[in-house]
Structures are given as C-alpha cells and as structure tokens.
Amino acid sequence: MTTPSQQPSPTPKPGRDPAERTHAAAGEDVDVMAISPVREEGMLTDEPPAETFGADVVAQAREIIARYPQSRSALLPMLHLVQSVEGYVSQEGVAFCAEQLGLSEAEVSAVVTFYTMYKRKPCGEHLVSVCTNTLCAALGGDAIYRQLAEHLGEDGKPLGHEETAGTPGEPGSITLEHAECLAACDFAPVLQVNYEYYDNQTPEKAVELVDSLRRGEKPAPTRGAPLSDFKSVERQLAGFFPEDDDQFRIDVDGPSQAVETLRGAQLAAERGWTAPAMAEDVPLPEVEAK
Ligand code: FES
C-alpha cells in the first residue's frame, strides 16, 4: 500500500514548465532531456547552431562603428544591420550589438523597443505599412488597413498588427502594420512597402498591390527608389550601398518631387510671399556647453 506522499509523480509532458519542475517531477526511468521543453522549442539540438553573425557581419559592424567618434553612436545603424541579417532583432541580435558596442543588453533593448522600425518578430519579405494617422484615416486609411487585414488573414481571422501572412522571410510573405503619419499627407491616404511610397491609395488598389507582391512582382512605387525587399532596405539603412555609381543610382535614387508637394512653394512664388527676414542684431539663445 502506498501513502499519498509515496505516490509516483506523473510523467511530465513536454511544455513550458520550468526545467526544475520537469526534473523534479520525473522518475528515474524518464529521459529528462528528451522531454525537455527547451528541446521542444528547438533551442537544444544535437548539432551546434549555425553562427548568425559570422566574420563578414562582424567586419561590417566594425565598418559602421568606425564612422563615429564614439562606438555607442553606431547603435541605430547596427540594429539595421542586424535586421538585414535576421529580418528582425532577436535576443541574439541584441547581444551582438551590446558586445560590439560595449553596451549592456538592457541599453540595447531599451532602444530596440522604443523605435517602431526595429521589429521584435521575424518580418516578411515585404513590410506593408498603412498610415492610419488622422488625415489618412479620415480619407480612407482605416478602410485600407481593414481590407488588407481581412484579405491577408486566414480562416476568417484578420491579420493583426505586425503579423505576417506566409512564412516570415520566404518569398511572397507580407508583414502588415499600422503606421503613424508617414509625412506624405498631401498624397493621403498612403501606404509604404519597405518604406517606399504608394500614394493616393484605395482598398482595391492596396489589395491589388499585395497580391502582386505575393506573386513575386515588385510594382513601381509612386515616387522614389524602386522596390526591393525588407532585408535589402535594412542593409541600405545600415549605410551599405553598391559601389558602382550607376547601380547605386538604380538601387536608391528616384524622382521624388510631386506637383502636390510643390504647390505651396509655387503659390508663394507667384504671389511674392516670403518668410520674414531674420533681424541680424537678434542674439541667438545661449546653448549650454557640453
Ligand atoms: S496622416 Fe498619413 S501621411 Fe500624414
């Protein structure tokens, strides 16, 4: 006969239980490593993990750091470099930046979580940002976002903010996000794909756009540089461009001025309006010495 305290513990199932509990609950005949939640989550494998940030990435990191008098100033482009490798900033990416820049992981994490351009979940091949700030929202931005969320969702469930349709990083995968004012109110409602502008959108035009992205096409943005993909743009944001000047122009340049944007300046010129001249004898405010 067994007393309650002598009852054998139930064999734990793989799951998210802390490892100590798993170990304590397992009998001697249980292969603890085999049922470890760590193994189930893919963190423990028989093969050593491939190095995410190899020698080439370290060399690029050093190149970024050399641009600044103090290494910590290189954090923002470094995080873009990490995103060009991983498609987001993982905890490993945080540790990489901290190590390269002599910062703590907490300092790097504070920056990553502050700026919306740094993603904490793997991104799709394309990042679609729909402006739902006041002017765009009033002119149809909310309807565009809703339509895209439903169109890209599955089983009747709309895609959520920063969620991805398809497998992140795979061709045709798309991450959808709400964006605050994209500084293009004169073309509202607007959206961006990998930070390139698609102006004067409608729900129908936006659905057509994401469908062509899913087919592997790259429709030309309304203005600016041609469309590439999220990781390539992150590389540019880290400050790496083609050395060949012609290729550089093709990759990153493009006409960006538009009649709508210039209209105010044209009206002012026609009517002779100018900004008030600055009086020469007005002293500039004192700036605190650094
Ligand atoms: S409100 Fe959408 S670009 Fe300004």
UniProtKB/TrEMBL annotation:
Pfam families reported for this sequence: 2Fe-2S_thioredx (PF01257)
Keyword Transferase found: no
Protein name: NADH-quinone oxidoreductase subunit NuoE
Claim: Zinc-finger is one of the keywords in the record: no
One Gene Ontology MF term: NADH dehydrogenase (quinone) (non-electrogenic) activity
UniProt KW keywords: Iron, Iron-sulfur, Metal-binding, Oxidoreductase
Organism superkingdom: Bacteria
Coiled coil: none
Annotated Basic and acidic residues bias: 14-23
EC number(s) given by UniProt: 1.6.5.9
Enzyme superclass (EC): oxidoreductase
Gene behind this protein: nuoE
Region (Disordered): 1-31
